What we know:
By secondary structure, this protein is mainly α.
Amino acid sequence: MTHQNLMNNYFNPNPIYNEKDFRPRFGMRHHVVERLLHDVQHVNPDFQYKLDRAAHPGFSPHQKVTIALRMLAYASLADAINDIYGMFESTSLDNLVGLCDTVVQLYKEEYLRGFSGMKGLLDCMHCQWKNCPTGW
């Protein structure tokens, strides 16, 4: 149900929220998140849809990326994510680290323009980027 609500709100062809609503909630534009979703799923198997250890449907790629982006965009605590999205703190943190590592792997050679407003963990302190904006 959480996945379907997320899709209906932001990702289906006629979402409830438009681009103007999307950017403040995700910290970047819709097309950047769509590219990120596509790229991350192809590089990191943890972001592909699969069953959990109990053979129940796990979190969708959209949920995993959204949760990590919300943690970054709002500097949200992992335990708050459990209350909102039903993802345990340890899973949220693993998910966040996985997304950050994958983003660095994927985009380290180009300027991460869509991430410039993030308040969270992804900044120029974690790796060397050729086009890192040193004025931040």
